[in-house]
Design a protein that fits this description.
The chain is α/β, with parallel strands linked by helices. It folds into 3 domains: 3-166 and 206-271 and 285-290, TIM Barrel (Alpha-Beta Barrel); 315-408, no CATH class; 433-575 and 621-668, Aldolase class I (TIM Barrel, Alpha-Beta Barrel), CATH 3.20.20. The protein has 21 helices and 30 strands. It has an 8-stranded parallel beta barrel, surrounded by 5 helices.
C-alpha cells in the first residue's frame, strides 16, 4: 500500500493531517529540522504526538535533516534518545555526522535519507541501503521514467514529493540564503531569495508541484510513499490537500475538476507545474503568487470545523460480547492490525423485571463517542433472562478500548547507547598547501601548472578534453558532477577509466552515489564541497567510507573549522566565487548569463554537466590579505576559479604563493568570520 505522508508544522496541522487521511506525518522538534520557522514540537510533546498518531494507525517521522555543528552534536543525540523512547517510526537525515551519530546512539530506529541528501541515482540509493537506511526521499527533479526505473531496482523504499512548493535549486545544494544573508537553508532558516526578482522578473521562482493526476501511476510504479510539502502552511491547507490526495490514493483515480479547483484554491503560484515529472523543462514551470490572492476562508472554516471534532479518522473495532448465566461478562475487542484484548465484568444476573436483548446490549457497546474508535461490527451472545446494568456495560466497553489503545500505542524495545564524541585529533602544524579548481578546460595553462599547486581539480567532462599526460608533474583531480542521473554513470565510468590510463591521481566525491562509482578505481578520493561537511562526526564517517580528504562547508566560520577533529586532511576555499545554487534545467539569465538583483548585484550563471546551470556569488571570496586561515589545521586551501581568464588563474595562484596582494575589486570574506544561524 502506498503511504501518504503529510506535513505537521504544528499540533493543529498534525490533527488536520491525521483526520483527513494521512498514513504518516513528518514533523520537527526544537531546532534540528529544515523548517525551524514552523511552530514545530518540543521533545516533551513528542511522546503524546506519537501516541495520538499510533492510536489512529498513523506513523510519525522525525526530521533531523539539517547540518549540525560540533557543539550541537551532543544535544542532537539527546533529542535522538528522546525520539526513540517516544516511539517515532523513522528519522530523516541529511548530515553525514548526524547519520553517523544516530547509528551509534539509537541503532534500532529506522533512518531515511532526506531529499537534502541529494539522492537521485540507483547507486546513491544502493549506498543508502548499504549504510542501513530503509528509505530514500528522491530528488524532486526526477522524471516519471527515472522514478519508475529506480522503483524497479531499488533495494529500499522510495519516497516522492507530489505536491507543494519547489526549490529551484536541487535540495541540499543551496547556499544562496546563507551566503547573502547568513540564513542557512541547510540549517532550516532559508530566507527564500529564489522568490525575489532578478533581471526584472522572477526567473528562480518555481510554481508549486502538483502530481495529483499521476497518483495512480506512482502507485503502480511501486513508490512507497507520496509526500506533501507544507510545514509552513496553514493547518486548513494541510487538511485540504491531504484529504484530496487521500481520496485519490484510496480510489486509485485522477482528480475531478472540482478537486483540481480546490487544490488551486488552497494555494498555488499562479498555477502549478508537473514539469520535472513530465520532463518539460521550460519557462511554464515558473511563476509567483499574485499579490491579490487570498485564502479561501469560508472553505477553510468548514475544513477546520470538521477536523477539530476529531471524528473523521477513527479506528474500526470489532466487538464480541458474551453473557452467560452465573459467569463473568466478557467483551473481546479486535482491530484490523491484529491487536485483540478481552475485558471482563461482573457476573450476569437473572433479570428481576425485564431481560436485556442482544440489540440493547449492542446499542450500548457502540457508544464510543469521545474515543478514537468506532465499532464496525458487534456480535452479542446472551443467554435468555439476564440483566446487566448500563454502568457495567459502559465500564466493560471502556476497559476493552483502553486495552486496545495500550496495545496500539505500545512502545517498541530499542537500544539507547551513550553519545561518544569523535576522538580528539591535533591540528597539523604545517601551513596548508594550495589547490585549485577550474571551471573550464581552457583555464588550464602551463603557467598555472608551473606554479605546482598540490592538486588541480577540473570537472570530469572538461578534464576529458585535456591530454593530462602533457603535464606529468601535475596532480589532477577529476571532479564528478554533484547532480547527474543513473543513465550518466556508464559515460562517467568511461571518462574515469580513460583519464586513469593517462595518469589521473584523484577523483572528487560530491554525492553519495559517487562512492559506488569510484570504488573500483585506485584513486585518491577527495570529498567535495557538495558533501556539506559540517562537523567532526562527518569527517569520521567519510574516513570510514574510504575518503582521503574532505572540503569543509564554507558555511562554517573560522573557529568552527579550527576546532574540527581532523581525522581526515581538510580543505577550505580561500579564494573564488562561491557556488550558490545548482539548477536542474536552464534558467532565463539573458544573453549576459547573469542574474541582477534589486541591489544591482550581478550573479554569474555557469553551464555545468548535463545541461544544468550553477549560480555563483556576485562577489569573490578573498582571504589572501589575512593569515588567520593558515593556522586552523587545514591541509589544503583552495582557489576556486570560475569566471577568471586563463591568465588571471595563473596570476592569482602565483600571487597567493608569493604572498602578494591580488584582492579583487568587489571582494567578500564570505562566511569565514560570520558563520550562519
Amino acid at each position: 500500500m502506498t503511504e501518504l505522508l503529510a506535513p505537521a508544522g504544528s499540533r493543529e496541522a498534525l490533527i488536520a493531517a491525521v483526520q483527513n487521511g494521512a498514513n504518516a506525518v513528518y514533523l520537527g522538534v526544537d531546532e534540528f529540522n529544515a523548517r525551524r520557522s514552523a511552530r514545530n514540537f518540543t521533545l516533551d510533546e513528542l511522546r503524546g504526538v506519537a501516541a495520538y498518531c499510533h492510536l489512529r494507525g498513523v506513523r510519525v517521522y522525525l526530521t533531523l535533516n539539517t547540518l549540525v555543528n560540533d557543539r550541537e552534536l551532543h544535544a542532537l543525540s539527546s533529542v535522538a534518545h528522546g525520539a526513540s523512547e517516544a516511539g517515532v517510526d523513522a528519522i530523516l537525515v541529511q548530515d553525514w555526522g548526524v547519520l553517523d551519530t544516530l547509528r551509534r546512539v539509537i541503532p534500532d530506529v529506522p533512518l531515511h535519507a532526506s531529499t537534502q541528501m541529494t539522492v537521485h541515482t540507483l547507486s546513491g540509493i544502493e549506498e543508502a541501503a548499504r549504510l542501513g537506511m530503509t528509505r530514500a526521499v528522491l530528488s524532486r527533479e526526477l522524471s516519471r521514467d527515472e522514478i519508475a526505473e529506480l522503483c524497479a531496482k531499488s533495494p529500499i523504499e522510495l519516497e516522492v514529493f507530489v505536491h507543494g512548493a519547489l526549490c529551484v535549486c536541487v535540495s541540499g545544494q543551496c547556499a544562496m540564503s546563507a551566503v547573502i544573508g547568513q540564513r542557512s537553508g541547510n540549517r532550516g532558516l532559508c530566507a527564500q531569495p529564489c522568490r525575489l526578482p532578478y533581471n526584472g522578473g522572477h526567473p528562480l521562482s518555481l510554481r508549486d508541484n502538483n502530481l495529483a493526476d499521476y497518483v495512480s501511476e506512482l502507485q503502480d510504479m511501486g513508490v512507497a510513499c507520496l509526500k506533501l510539502e507544507g510545514r509552513m502552511k496553514r493547518p486548513e491547507y494541510v487538511a485540504a490537500v491531504t484529504g484530496i490526495y487521500a481520496r485519490l490514493l484510496r480510489e486509485h483515480r485522477k482528480p475531478t475538476d472540482e478537486e483540481r479547483a480546490q487544490l488551486a484554491a488552497a494555494f498555488s503560484r499562479d498555477g502549478f507545474t508537473d514539469g520535472y515529472y513530465t520532463g518539460k523543462h521550460d519557462l511554464s514551470m515558473f511563476g509567483v503568487r499574485p499579490a491579490t490572492e487570498r485564502w479561501p476562508e469560508e472553505w477553510f472554516a468548514q475544513l477546520r470545523a470538521d477536523y477539530e471534532q476529531e471524528r473523521l479518522c477513527t479506528v474500526p473495532v470489532r466487538f464480541s460480547a458474551t453473557l452467560r448465566a452465573g459467569e463473568a461478562i466478557a467483551l473481546r475487542a479486535e482491530d484490523d492490525d491484529g491487536h485483540a484484548v478481552t475485558a471482563t465484568g461482573p457476573k450476569s444476573e437473572p433479570a428481576r423485571t425485564r431481560a436485556l436483548t442482544a440489540e440493547e446490549i449492542e446499542t450500548r457497546l457502540r457508544k464510543t463517542g469521545g474515543t478514537a474508535f468506532s465499532v464496525s461490527d458487534c456480535a452479542v451472545d446472551v443467554d435468555d433472562g439476564l440483566a446487566v446494568s448500563a454502568a457495567a456495560l459502559n465500564a466493560l466497553r471502556r476497559d476493552a478500548l483502553m486495552g486496545l489503545e495500550a496495545a496500539r500505542t505500545a512502545l517498541p524495545e530499542r537500544r539507547s547507547l551513550p553519545y561518544t564524541a569523535p576522538e580528539s585529533v591535533p591540528n597539523p602544524a604545517e601551513p596548508p598547501r594550495l589547490t585549485v579548481t577550474l571551471h573550464r578546460a581552457e583555464q588550464l595553462t602551463g603557467a598555472l601548472v608551473d606554479c605546482a599547486p598540490a592538486r588541480i581539480g577540473i570537472p570530469i567532462d572538461e578534464l576529458a578534453k585535456v591530454d593530462i599526460a602533457r603535464y606529468p608533474s601535475a596532480r589532477f583531480c577529476a571532479i564528478l558532477p554533484r547532480v547527474y542521473r543513473t543513465a550518466d554513470e556508464p559515460r562517467l565510468r568511461e571518462m574515469l577509466t580513460a583519464l586513469c590510463e593517462q595518469g589521473l591521481t584523484a577523483v572528487g566525491i560530491g554525492n553519495l552515489g559517487h562512492l559506488a562509482l569510484t570504488r573500483d578505481y585506485d584513486l585518491e578520493k577527495c570529498g567535495e564541497l557538495s558533501l556539506n561537511v559540517f562537523n567532526s562526526a562527518a569527517l569520521r564517517f567519510l574516513k570510514e567510507q574510504g575518503l582521503d580528504s574532505a572540503a569543509v562547508s564554507f558555511e562554517l566560520r573560522r573557529e568552527q573549522i579550527r576546532d574540527l577533529q581532523k581525522c581526515l586532511p581538510c580543505e577550505a576555499v580561500i579564494y573564488g566565487r562561491l557556488p550558490l545554487m545548482i539548477i536542474d534545467n536552464r534558467i532565463d539569465a539573458g544573453a549576459s548569463r547573469t542574474l541582477t538583483d534589486r541591489r544591482s548585484e550581478c550573479f554569474p550563471v555557469l553551464d555545468v554537466f548535463g545541461g544544468r546551470c550553477e549560480i555563483e556569488n556576485a562577489k569573490t571570496l578573498y582571504l589572501g590579505r589575512r593569515s588567520d586561515w593558515q593556522d586552523i589545521g587545514l591541509t589544503y586551501a583552495r582557489l576556486r576559479f570560475t569566471t577568471e581568464t586563463p591568465e588571471q588563474c595563473a596570476a592569482i595562484l602565483r600571487a597567493h604563493i608569493d604572498g602578494a596582494d591580488c584582492a579583487p575589486e568587489d571582494l567578500t570574506r564570505g562566511l569565514f568570520y560570520r558563520g550562519v544561524e
